[in-house]
Amino acid sequence: MRVVLRNPKRTLDLPAPGNVGRLLRDLEIVPESVIVIRNDTLATHDERLSDDDVVEIRPVMSGGSR
Fold this sequence. Notes:
32% strand; mainly beta; globular; 5 strands; 1 helix; five-stranded mixed sheet
């Protein structure tokens, strides 16, 4: 499975750990701080992963207008 991380941008090749939540735990990423995109579709934390997936993990940005 290919994992693309943002901020800083880097790419990892890993065996699929089972589901998105497990991947985030393995990478020591706080689930509430990111969104996960699996094969160009937003993924939930209980969604199953497979070795041929491409997963992108993006930090959540918040803010507003002044």
